[in-house]
Every structure is written in C-alpha cells, then in structure tokens.
Amino acid sequence: MNLEAYLAPYAAHSADTRGRRFPEAAPASRSEFQRDRDRIVHSTAFRRLEYKTQVFVNHEGDLFRTRLTHSIEVAQIARSAARNLRLNEDLVEAISLAHDLGHTPFGHAGQDALNACMKEYGGFEHNLQSLRVVDALEERYGAFDGLNLVFETREGILKHCSLANAAKLGDVGQRFIDKTQPSLEAQLANLADEIAYNNHDIDDGLRSGLLSTEQLDQIDFYGRHRRQVEIAYPGIGGRRAIHETIRGMINALIVDLITTSEQHIEAAHLQTIDDVRQAGPLIRFSDAMAADAALLKRFLYENLYRHYQVNRMTSKARRIVSELFTAFMQEPKLLAPNYLDASGNPAQQARKIADYIAGMTDRYAIREHRRLFLVDEI
Ligand code: MG
C-alpha cells in the first residue's frame, strides 16, 4: 500500500519532515518515520522497558504489564485509530514505542523520588528524560549522540514540559511557549496511552486480587460493558468475562475517539499539518466518554495505585531511589567512570546520576542498592 497517497493532507508526511538535528541522507527502503521506529526498537533503552514497572514490580508476576508490553499496547491502539483517521501509522508507532523510554525504575514512585532528589538541580521529568534518551544518551552512532530522530517523533515524545525547560529545548519546546498543538499523530499517541493503561491496569488489578469485579461493577462504564457481555454470553464468568468486558471497553473508547476526532477535524477545515498546530486539540473523546474515562481513572487512583500493598512497594521504591542518589552525590567515586562528572559542578554531577538511576531496570536498582548498602554483598 502506498501510505503517502492514503494519508490525509493534514497528516504528518514523511517527505515533508522538518528533519533531523544532524542531517542524514533519506532512507532507501523505508520512510523517515519507519527509520525512527527501527532506531527506537534497536535501542538499549527500549530493551530495558521489559524490566521496568508499570504498576506491579517486574518480579511480582510474569503476567503483569511491564513498560515494554504497555508501549506495544499503546502502539497497537494508536495505529488502529491512525489508519481510520488517515493519519501516519508509522509516526504514531514510533512515538508510542518511545514515549516511556525515559521512565525510571518502579513507575511513578521512582519518578517522584528522583524528581525530589533533583529539586535543587533542575528536577527530573520522565517525558523530558524520554527526549534526552533519544537526543543524547543512546550511544549507537559514530556521527552523533542519541538516535537523531526527526522533529515530528521528538515533538510527539515530549508530551509535557515546564516553560522553563521548554525555553532551553529549541524547536520541540517552542509549542509550549506558543501554546500551540503538536501533530494529530502526537495527540493520538497521547490518548492511546491513556486507553491502554486504564484498561490494562484494571486487568492487572483484577489478576493481582487487589481489585474485585464487585468493586468494578460500581463503575458505570465497567458495569455497562459487563452486563452486555453477560447478555451475549449467558453464564459466562471468570477470566473470560473480564477479558470480554475490557475488550468491549477498549473498543468503545477507540470508536468514540475516532468518531469524535473525525468531527473535530472536519469542523476545523484543515489543509496542512501547520493548520493542525494552530488549531485546538482535535483528537478527543466525546464529553460523555471523557467523563466515563475520568471516573475510571479516579477509581484506579483510589483503589489500585493507593492500595496498601502497592503503597508498600512504592514506599520501598522511593527509599531505594533516594538512597542511591544520596550515596552517589555524597561519594561520586562510587560511580563507574562514565557517570563521573569532571567539571566539579554539582548540578552536572547530579544530572549524570539521575541519568544513571533513570536508566536502571527495577531489578538492577534493587541489586545496586544491595551492593551499596549491604555489608555482606559486594
Ligand atoms: Mg505510557
């Protein structure tokens, strides 16, 4: 299929990319966005996602989502919707697979702890770190640091950013200052992320036993889909009922997202991707669906992310991350030479330590903590 011919005029077209920071010859057998996706898949940071927590720490069970499987689910949802909206599937795939590359070990607990440690040194933010991974930290090419991705992929990776940081980032930071929108592909990857985690966290929450179906039935959106499943398959129960219900919810969210976005796109009379950037957010849920999704999110926040068993892990994770950071700051000579900063500037040393910790998988961080703090472990 000739993708370029299929794309809407306001989609991101590979031939019209704003290009790479270090100019490279156009790829021979694939589009610029496909090349980015391939670079992301082959990166070290991508492989580490397999051992980084989404909600449940990697060793808690083999069936829970990790950041890797989460990223693949996001890519699947984003690509399905992109094809329907005639947006660029290759670009949404690249953005989706890269969106969590900068995540610390131990999910949000790790991110919050590292941000607190970095407070005096410019803070730590995982979206910005994802960009830092692809712009600077990956060491794979002779001619440049990072992966040298195109502007459109980098724009999509940088979902949020403080104004102070935006000012330092040049072209990808500009939209936060101008208050304009990124490509529709970037907007789509962002909402696909939300669809993926809300639904897979319900699945993982039920699988772990921390959530019950009785609790979930009280959420109107879940209850409605669950009843539909019971009508379609009388007597269905157990895992099949859960999977059918979640399947129905994901499908409803995607269909709503496509239909609503189509309406907004049509009303905006877009000609080019520049019109997209000047318009308001166009990839959206209907108001009713947004309200359902918000309730679901709140339910998960109150009942899963704050469950005491999850709290125990997040408390431990916070301790591991902040103790590692403090030990390295106090005694930089504990660091391997590539993380040692020669400038004598504490902020630069702190940033290198943050890069090191953010790059750790859950189990690597646990092991490193043991190596530093247990006297009988070397
Ligand atoms: Mg995500």
Write up this protein:
With 378 residues, the chain is mainly α. It has a domain of 242 residues: Hypothetical protein af1432 (Orthogonal Bundle), CATH 1.10.3210.10. 62% of the residues lie in helices and 0% in strands. The protein is built from 19 helices and no strands. Helix 2 runs parallel beside helix 5, helix 13 crosses helix 14 and helix 17 packs across helix 18. The termini are far apart. The chain binds magnesium ion.
Give structural attributes.
binds magnesium ion; 378 residues; Hypothetical protein af1432
Give a short overview.
With 378 residues, the protein is mostly helical. It is built from 19 helices and no strands. It has a domain at 28-207 and 248-309: Hypothetical protein af1432 (Orthogonal Bundle).
What is the CA–CA distance across the termini? Answer: 56 Å
The portion of residues assigned to helices is: 55-70%
Mean pLDDT: 94
Outline, from the CA principal axes?
A: globular
Computed over alpha carbons, the radius of gyration is 22 Å
Second rung of CATH, namely the architecture of one domain: Orthogonal Bundle
N-to-C SSE string, H for helix and E for strand = HHHHHHHHHHHHHHHHHHH
Largest sheet: none
**Quick one: CATH class of one domain?**
Mainly Alpha
Number of E strands:
0
Number of helices: 19
Say which molecules are bound, naming each kind only once: magnesium ion
CATH superfamily of one domain: Hypothetical protein af1432
Secondary-structure-based class equals mainly alpha
CATH topology name of one domain: Hypothetical protein af1432
